[in-house]
UniProtKB/TrEMBL annotation:
Enzyme Commission identifier(s): 4.1.1.17
Cofactor dependence: pyridoxal 5'-phosphate
UniProt entry keywords in alphabetical sequence: Decarboxylase, Lyase, Phosphoprotein, Polyamine biosynthesis, Pyridoxal phosphate
Pathway: Amine and polyamine biosynthesis; putrescine biosynthesis via L-ornithine pathway; putrescine from L-ornithine: step 1/1
Protein name: ornithine decarboxylase
Amino acid sequence: MNGFSDADFDFSFLEEGFAARDIVEKKINEVSLSDDKDAFYVADLGDVLKKHLRWTRALPRVTPFYAVKCNDSKAIVMTLAALGAGFDCASKTEIQLVQSIGVPPQKIIYANPCKQVSQIKYAAAHGVQMMTFDSEVELAKVARSHSNAKLVLRIATDDSKAVCRLSVKFGATLKTSRLLLERAKELGVEIIGVSFHVGSGCTDPETYTQAISDARCVFDMGAELGFNMTLLDIGGGFPGAEDAKLKFEEVTTVINLALDKYFPVDLGINVIAEPGRYYVASAYILAVNIIAKKVVLKENDSDEDDGAKEKTLMYYVNDGVYGSFNCIFFDHAHVKPLLHKKSKPDEKLYSCSIWGPTCDGLDRIVELCEMPDLQVGDWMIFENMGAYTVSASSTFNGFQKPDIHYVMSRPAWKLMQQMKEQGSILPVHDLTANTLPVSCAWESGVELPNTACSSAPIV
């Protein structure tokens, strides 16, 4: 990659002492007297960089191939490309996206086991050789359509403890794997390795151990048939938010032990992974505005307070499940609203529900939560909104997608430039607590100076 050169991509510098949450507050304050209170994102590209540094420390043997489907924002793709990551693409459009910013085909794996013939031919014409398969039909398709393909056999895993299961749709059993390898030999197709995916939102790190062990068996099968298999793809499933039940380092410790046992370094196997939410979940903050409100009064059956009525509140905001909150349906997400307006210590809380703006009764974001009595024009904030949100949102009912405002601290930008120039992580630098911006103005009503963030196009 030659660097950031897209004129449409720009970000704002975070000045020292400020964080992405402060920019959310600043933008809310800017529109406080206006009727134009559209939902918006603030995305911290420095958070993506911080995740990359954490990855290289925790998984030094594993090269990340970012799963584009998780968040296909061009700014994210450009940032990860500058950091030297590869890319897991599932379609022609995703391949076009990453190649449009100069990513070489060697850093792309077409990791969709069920590909349209025309898109296989597109990959062939544009130099993308690594691609996955898990069936004889797919093997035959690739053999006919891509003479230079380097195939990776995807095996099934036990993903019963994952939030989003994938092996119900993809992956070959060990028995089927042998048959597929034999068929590939007959067709003269090159098999370079094995891939698996333990499921999105994996909750049991030992699943990786079994999957890596199974991959070792398939490598041995391949060796018996004369294949020179040099690639292991351990897929995704890595947590992206700090409040996840399973911590990132818990997963990586198990992976490293399994790799050392089944694929020791001296074998020279190239190990890659397909992280998605890990990189982008925590980078995005979404701010939504209350556009309507309904007060529902319910008769109280208590004999002690005869005639009293219990109040519940329904809030309607300007983004919903057809937009950013599609993650609720597609990714089994459980979102938690934070209030922009600071609550009083003794403020009464009410049973509330939160709804999106469309005319569909399914457009419910939160079924039940407790919040104060808020008003139309007040704001709610949702953190950890970078994964499987913007990439799958629609404009159903004519509601537009929220704007995304990208930010980055100056130390993060400087480090990214150094890494881009040298092509590797610089061991003498890091984004520690001494260099990362710490919020100093999170509370509502604190006006940020104009220098809190200054526009700086990436060139």
